[in-house]
Here is the input.
Amino acid sequence: MRRALRFAAAIALVSCAPVAAQTRPAPKTAPKPRPAPIDRVYLSVNGMFQGAGTDFEDTLTYLENAEDAQVVSDYTVESGPGLDIAGGVVVLRGLGIGVGVTRSSRSSAAAITGSIPHPFFFNQPRSIAGDVSDLTREELAVHIQVRGVFPVGRHVQVMMFGGPSFFKVEQELVTSILYTDSYPYDAAAFDSAVTATSEESKIGANVGGDFGYFFTRQVGVGIGAQYTKASLEFSSADGDTVKVKAGGFQMVGGLRLRF
Here is the structure.
């Protein structure tokens, strides 16, 4: 009986061996690539260079020697450096809402031309001309931005943005001029200008893009370009208004952070 059982067991083992040999473990599947990171919070701190703004003109008319004197100031706004800070949060994948702040302090110059009435004769105005430099101009703007956030791989992130902007501009304006003349007063020469600083605010707009390269998941550097614009009206010394444009084309570059 024992021999019969041993013989049956041997036959069973031999018959099962080929089946076991044919059974192989399933091949391992390659791991899926990790998606590019979409972090919730982003921050950028930049140096900024703002191109020259649009020039503007102010014409003053006032009574002098019983006639109307006229002084025209042609202002030229110079380009210059500034500061740009922006930050926000990603509310949906690929869509963020943020706030940017730009500040620039530049100088402007004015070319003065004028017509000054003669003290003795009517309708014989005397022409004057001169220049005023180093007039101060400061722009502060707060930009509300809707941002498209587009990671490209694990190191590159591209953003496009736009929205409304709130501008506050301080501009030094010529309010009157000083001139010299002498008998017989047929000619007058420009001496200097009297100036005053005015402040105005206005809502405008902004649009731009940003390119960031990240050395780690959180820290990188980047460059960007943006265009901001607003049109303000300042009060002239004679009660008229002066239209002054703010903002312009801006290049930025600096630190990029995401969390």
In short: Residues 2-22 form the longest helix (21 residues).
